[in-house]
Each structure stands twice: as C-alpha cells, then as structure tokens.
Amino acid sequence: MTRKPRIQPSRPFEAQRTALMTRRRFLLGLVGGSVAALFPLRGAPEIAAGIAPDAGTAATVDTWAVLDATLNHLLPSEPDSPGASDIHALDYLRFVINDTTQDETERDFLRQGTVWLEDLSREREGKAFIDLDHDARERLLRQVAASGAGENWLSTVLLHLMEALLTDPVYGGNFEQRGWQWLWHTPGFPRPPAGKTYPELLKS
User: Fold this and answer.
1) Residue 194 resides in a domain
2) Is 33 left (phi over 0), alpha (psi -120 to 50) or beta?
3) Which parts of 125-177 fold into alpha helices (H)?
4) Which of 3, 17, 117, 180 has the smallest C-beta neighbourhood within 10 Å, fewest atoms?
5) pTM for the complete prediction?
6) How many structural domains is the chain composed of?
7) What number of other Cβ atoms are within 10 A of residue 94's Cβ?
8) Considering the domain boundaries, does residue 127 fall inside one?
C-alpha cells in the first residue's frame, strides 16, 4: 500500500498572530491614508522613517493603566460572566510584555500602541484615555478600529485577552480559574507548577 504524504496541520491563529504583531506592517498601514484617522503621529513621512509618536506623550503615558482601561472596556464584568479585571487580564499582559523569550517586536507593538492611543485620546477628546467615560472610550476605539493598522493593534490586544481568559493561572491570567469555570472547561494534566513555566524552562 502506498503511504499518502502526511499533511501538516495548518496554524491559522499563529499565522494571524505573526501578521498582527509586525510593527513594519503597522507603520506601513498608516502611510496609505490619513494619519489622524488612527493615531496622531506627526505625518506620513515621519511614519515611513519609523519616528515614534509625540515624545511628551511617550514619556508620560502609563502603559499599564491604558492597557487596563482598554481590556476592561473590551471585556467588562457581567453578573453571569467574568470581565477582564476578574480574570486579571492585565497581569497576563504584564507576563507577555515582560517575557524576554518572546519576540521584542511583538512586545513593543503592545506597549507602543498605548502611546498612540493616548495621543489620539488627548487630540480627539482633550483628556487622557483612562479619564474618558464609557461612551468616549467606545467612540475612540471605534475610530481606531476603522483603519487596518488600528484594527491590528486592537486585534492583538483581543487575542491576548482571550488567552488571559483561557490560560493556566500560573501565567497571570484566568485568576482562580474563573475563565475555565465560566466555560466549564477541564484543564489538561499535568499543569505547569510555579517555577516550571515555559520561559523558565527555556532559560534553564
């Protein structure tokens, strides 16, 4: 009998994640249209050159506060379902961004997006993103999502938010297994104990 060639399984989520994390794609996406429609950088030629957004904003923005506000807006707490704060999604994002075994481009993409979002908030709403009410945050995030580049950043945040909902609590998210309990999920065995997470194993 002739053995059929083995078909390698596709990895659509991994491929999508790689595409979303590419800063070059993010920057090039901004060049094609109105920069003000996404984040208030200072003009297409500067973006093409890879110049960062307003230095004053970059120096003062609280990355974690902006991410926390974004996460809680995207997944608010409900009476019958956990929200971003309930599953400690920000703690998981801290783990991801501080994980030096991962691509620096991916981690910087998440950080830098908060600076662009803060710039846009100050320009469009006249105040910091964390000081906006629900309607203003919704309005601003919809403006961001209206462009391909901004949608990439939001999609990346959403991807990690879903990971925080489903991850083993040892990685910071899914606090007290609340995501698993909500979804009636039984985790695999054995689970990684403290001190044996994958970054620690890679470094050992």
Assistant:
1) yes
2) beta
3) 134-145, 148-166
4) 3
5) 0.70
6) 1
7) 16
8) yes
Per-residue pLDDT of the chain (204 residues; tens, 9 = 90+): 444 333 343 444 455 444 444 433 443 343 333 333 344 332 322 332 333 445 555 567 899 999 999 999 999 999 999 999 999 999 999 999 998 888 888 889 899 999 999 999 999 999 999 999 999 999 999 999 988 878 889 999 999 999 999 999 988 999 999 999 999 988 888 887 777 776 676 666
Instruction: Give the C-alpha separation, 135 to 139, whole Å.
Output: 6
| φ/ψ (deg, to 5) at 112 | -65, -30
Which of 186, 189, 154, 160 is CA-nearest to residue 87?
A: 160
CA dist., res. 82 & res. 178, Å (int) = 7
Question: Cα(111)–Cα(120) distance, rounded to whole angstroms?
Answer: 15
At 162 the three-state DSSP class reads helix
Peptide bond into 190 cis (omega under 30): yes
Range of the domain at 160: 14-203
Backbone angle region of 186, left / alpha / beta, with phi > 0 → left and psi within -120 to 50 → alpha: beta
Contact 169, 91 (CB under 8 A): no
Distance CA 22, CA 25 (A): 5
pLDDT at 181: 93
In a domain, 2, yes or no: no
